[in-house]
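Entry 0007
Protein: 4a-hydroxytetrahydrobiopterin dehydratase
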Amino acid sequence: MYSRTASYLPSIILSPLRFQSRSLTTLRTCRRELVIPRRPLSVRFLFDAAPSSSTDDSDAASTVAAQKNAETLNSYAPIPSPPPQSLLYPLVQEDISRYLKPMYTRRWSVKWNNRQLHPTKGTLFLAKTFKLVDYEATMSFLRDIAIIVREENHHPEIAFNYRTVKIQTQTHRIAGPSIPIPDADGKIIRTPPGLTLNDARLAIRIEKLFTDVYLADGRGRPTGDNANVLTTPETLEEMEVLAARSLRRLRTDKTKRLAENEHSDTE
Ligand SMILES: C[C@H](O)[C@H](O)[C@H]1CNC2=NC(N)=NC(=O)C2=N1
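Output (structure tokens):
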């Protein structure tokens, strides 16, 4: 794909006349080849399939449904108001008790230093693996999640399979003191990733969607109690221990990678 594009490019550069005589379709194909791989097909599909408009009736119906959903969800976890973008502080004890603890009983957990879905970022994530009955249900759930994600402007990492959807969310830069993390170019100072009210909101909305729609109509399957033992920090101290541990790992790994790069440069 890239090689076809690459072999075409010199002819554009070397021969403007020949380039002009080529059909625009070829150029468009060429551009498409360059653009499409940057966005996974599944994600394009999800957004393209989002409903574009709704009638007054369905607006009214969805408002009623939304109120009903809010009541159902509030029975186990309130949705926090979105924090201002400039005040993305890590969750405090009250937030953990109020928003995360009820979610732990629904198989959400805090993953630390998880590279499985994101090879370059470690540290804390709020995560859950959902189970569905078939691929149609999985695709539908992903589409519904994509709508919530767009509304929240908070983008979790998502991996999916035939009947499972793995979600993990973190806030890339939390407010607070900066911590030096060495990057590819050398040492930089930045605030580390962490968990904020944005992550709690997103997780609660996705949980609400799954419970009220997918579990309710049988397309979602309850996650059994025999699922793997999950990490569920209930106090700020426990959360900070995890954060410190994962950051230490992140920094050590980056330093190691830097050293390896230097080593290969000198060879
Ligand atoms: C400016 C914009 O709001 C931010 O870059 C958002 C976008 N989506 C995001 N998604 C997630 N998961 N974490 C973030 O910190 C984040 N930041």
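Curator remark: Residues 8 and 30 are 8 Å apart (CA to CA). Residues 1-74 have pLDDT under 50 and may be disordered.
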